[in-house]
User: Fold this.
Amino acid sequence: MAVDERLIGNHLRLGVNRIAVQVYSPGYSHFAYVHRGACGLIGWLELAGRVVLTTGPGWKARRDASWSDRVDRVSIYGTGIEDRNLGLEEAWIEADASAWDAVRVVQEAEGPIWHRLRPRATALPVEGVQALDRPWQVRVGPAVAVSDDPHSDLRKAFSLSSETPAPALLPRGASAIWIFDLGESRACLAGVEVTASGGERLLISYAEKLREGDLLLSDPATYCRMRPTDRFTLRPGWQLVEGFTPRGARYLVFALEGGGVSLAPRFHVRLPVTPVEERPLPSLHPELKAVAELCRRTTLNCLQDGFVDGVWRESSLWVGDAVAQDWALRAISDDPRPLLFTIDMAAEGADAEGFLPSVLPGEVPAYAVTDYNFSWVELLAGCATHPGISEPEAIWQRHWGTLTRMLERMATHLGPDGLLRNPPGRRLFLDWSPMSRAEPNLTLNLRNLHALRLAAGLAEKVGRTADWAAQAGDLAQALQGHRAADGWRESPGGEAASQLALALLILTGMVEGPEASALADRIIARSLDLRDEALPGQPALASPFMHHYLFLALQQLCRRKDIHAIIAARWGRWAREGRPTTPENWSIDFPDGSACHGFSAHPLGWL
Assistant:
């Protein structure tokens, strides 16, 4: 945890000072980290560039009994349910710690398990507090029997309640639900000040969207197993109730059991924001300006410790998504730190075979995606054009071993026909698109070809010897087998090439001249047709994310007006609908579709 020393200085006084740190771990891993069955703390205090305090055997620790040590996993996307009995809470910052246990030192700060520890690479979020005065909806109904699953209890209470004015007094046996709308999906932490008789339960939950006008509380059976509901058992009297871990949501939900006392709750939300020194947006046509603002909000809301795909997924930093997110961010800021953080963390996460992780900082085996290795090469190459990077060659040199090893390993999966097959246990690519995944896959091999050519260009710029250009030539020759008499195929003898594959054919130079122009016309016509379902005779529609590659191809043919026309048609539709942020796909009716998805905001860079 990095903290501004100027803020610490405001709290220090002459003489002895006590520094206390609260640590919470639900006891299992998720997208944000991979643990080894233990949790702990390492920290140090620097003042004026000098280390004046470190954790070690002189520290003491005490388990906070108010937090339950048996909590359900929310999902791979989040940190877990928080279940707390405030009646068991003790003062810990000013407490007498003489009777606390001596800490168990697993390893000193210079030990090998910490050898990759380094100062924070990205900007420290700034947290503001906002009062919640006007609920979007208030509901009252009977209290429900308590179970081991707070989220299930909330869903049941919600189904038994009805909309009504806010109650001044809530009797035992009843419950009230307050819902607040932040106006857009944000990283946030909800809280409330409330007076209780003692023993009442308060649930705080988070939701992102409506369905047919009603709040959509996630169903764990269909919604990435999400249970984003924390439970607090209240003590008598006034108390401040907050969870520990920020989550992501647009709608904040507070459900309180009655205790027969005057409530007068005061609700608030903490809103961490990663500071960005922005450049102003250029002068644009009103329709495109509305799209740019839509994408700007999304980009900034999906900027936390680094790039995250959607705010309700909290800490899921995808290597592939960062290609589009970096493109959007560099349109308004010169800050290269999120890009460099992604590049470095991916390189550190390479497995024993040389393949890179798909999700950072920890790998999640179920989401090992082959083409995100190629995305990492694109991120490396992108350093050359980033406005905040002056020496991209130094970055390439630092990661040369990782790049070489990954491409060498990928080459071992070429078949006798010279085409790449997906390594066992991995996904070809992640995309909400109906395109074919049959192998040998045209899109996957074109992503490989694009990466090889980019890598060959890097080798030339830094004076390294590599055979990637020759490999790219061989692969381009092998890909001719995907060309049929009536057009390109996703797999030899299979379905017609998708819109994304057609774009990659242009981007990699597999087609040129009149053929490239004809394919561009087909790409543009499909995107301008706002029907999202599969259409006969037209290529499979690419997702919002993969339209970034469509735009790269069109830019290569100097067709920027067509890029803007597609943005005005497809992203403009969202702006006209009044959406505050860009969704994950053209339709997010599927249960876990995100309403604020960073990779869909890349048109900001094209505007």
Summary: The first helix runs from residue 5 to 9. The chain is about 30% helix and 15% strand. The two ends are 36 Å apart (CA to CA). The CA atoms of residues 436 and 490 lie 7 Å apart.
